[in-house]
Amino acid sequence: MNNAMNELVRELHERLARIQELNAAIAAMRVRESSPDGVVTVEVDGNGALLDLELTRGVTELSAGELAAGIVATADSAVRKVFAERADAVNAFNAGAAALPASAPDDQARAKKEMPR
Length: 117
Known about the structure:
Oligomer: single chain
Shape: rod-shaped
Helix content: 55-70%
Number of domains: 1
Distance between the termini: 13 Å
CATH class: Alpha Beta
Radius of gyration: 23 Å
Largest sheet: 3 strands, antiparallel
CATH architecture: 2-Layer Sandwich
Order of helices and strands: HEEEHH
């Protein structure tokens, strides 16, 4: 391969590695949140999916509606926090992507011309 093609391949590998790092970081994110009264605790992942729901004995003192509202409010709070973390990770990724050199269009065209057919 010629230099332009080698550089393009190197850039693509670098960008792919950064995308894989971002995906791994999001997959590893976890947020645990408890309701103000401590009756409900939830854990969500980086996509906001509920991973765990814990209820204390205090649940027996709540009506079904109060319990449902407590679960929803606590889960909502956890999801908002994990999405804020996720947004920070994506913003850092985007800032890093802007710092990567972009192949010049003429380099890309030259590499395409020189590719064996």
